[in-house]
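User: what does the whole thing look like in 3D?
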Amino acid sequence: MHNFDELQKRCKKYKLKKTFTYLFLSGIGLASLVALFLFIQAPLAQKRTIKHISTIEKIDTQKNKILNTQKQEKKQITKKEKKTTHNTLKTYSLQFLVIKKENILRAKKRKKILEYIGFKNCKLTQHGKYIYLTCNEVNDIKNLSKYIKLAKKEKLNYFIDTQYFNKEKEIKKRNSKKQNTQKTIIKKILKTQKATTPMLKVQTVDLQQLQKEFFQTPNYNIALLIAHNYFNKKAYKKAIFWAKKANKLNKSDADSWILYAKSLHALQRNKQAMQLLHIYLQYENSDEATHLLQQWERTQ
Amino acid sequence: MNYLELAKCFEEKISSKHYHQNSEVLHIKNKIESILSNDTKQLLFLTGQPGVGKSAFLNYLENNFSYDIIKFDIPFLEPIDFVKILIKKTGTEVDNYSLEELIKQVITLYKSSNYVVVLDEAQLLSKDMIELIRILADSKAFWFILAMHEHESKKILQEPQFASRPHKVLQLQDISLKECKEYIYAELTNKNATMLADIITSKYIKYIFKLTHGNMRVLKKLLYTSFLLIDYAQKKDKKQYKAFNKCMITMAAIDGGLIDA
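Assistant: Here's the predicted 3D structure for the full assembly of 561 residues, as structure tokens:
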């Protein structure tokens, strides 16, 4: 008769061996799948971070620009304020949202919600690209305290918007409004800066590494990022070089053209800079480019 | 359930009563019948892997065939003895002649008849015997069916005495998964074990087929050992081994050398 116990042992051993090989093979399969996934995802993630960095970079430059203009306008306003203190009135309101005009529906929804909560006189005002949602416009800031409490209670992000209103000169009102909107933009940018950690990445961008990456895989965003960095460092010739590189890869995007023009302008080659923007605006529409061109044309 | 009884139904048996007819067997049988009725007398080679069921098929043919068959199971024959047996089958007395005279006698005796001489394990035939078969086949007195292993048949068929003569090769194949299922089901239902037949055929048939590759002898041996092991486990009161399961098949396969463990 068969040696039953011996067969029993061999059967168990065989089963163990089989399960082990199955596990081993499935482990290898899984590992290879993960490796494959990472291999596919790595360049995509890199692209995404570069894009993200470039957008943050944009915000950063925008912020610097606004800060500079704000400083200048502050000086102007303080001068004017000194002159026109008797004629000006201040209005205060709670500003809840600054949003691009494309997202007006979102702003309208928010307005309805705020009115439902209990805020009064909510209105949407548009300045340039952005739409501002403000509520409870009052002349005395003390009257706002009730609504500030409500906003705090509802955990809403708000900003006390001050507007200068001159009975005699409406131009002044516009100027003050501009200042306030700029303030909100700055506040927004500062908020996003605090919230988004990748901002740190911008400061630690290794230009050499980026350049290496670009030469390995030419990419518009990388070239533009390098150009921005050189521009910020006031190395305008290098900025031109990299803006050109970016422009070769994507001719339709305004950023490379604007940076190229700005760099030329910084090098006192104003005519060339304006000519460049004129050429671009013949084929594409860009608010930033037209604004910049108008600004330069005014100063000339 | 008596597993010892079940084991016995999968024992290697020669009798044609237990022969399971599958589509392959019926196909070969019909092919032989059509050759015998339409062609001139010649050599037929029945080839197949060891254990495919050649001998069982020949036994089945001996009892279920419309032609008269003279079957030789033992291939270790001397040419003179072979001729003498053929003469004796006709009821004629053998005179003490030389081999040459006996061949002449046997040819005259069978010339007008339609006998089929069947030789099993023909790969073991001596050169003298092969020569004698060639002479008898040339005389057109007999039909010859030579059953041999597929591997050896290639060598024998390449020899000039066969290659140059009219002959037919019939290859018996291993059974398919469906046939394997049908065979097990038929055998177990014959023993009134339909419940077990249902369990085996639905759950374990693929595993059994994977191990045996459709070879009838291996299949029978595997099931025979499995049932013997279950019978042993029942007698020794070994839990988990009292019923038919995958583990019992694995154990039987290890015992039969189908699995290297």
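In plain terms: The mean pLDDT of chain B is 86. The first strand of chain B starts at residue 43 and ends at 48.
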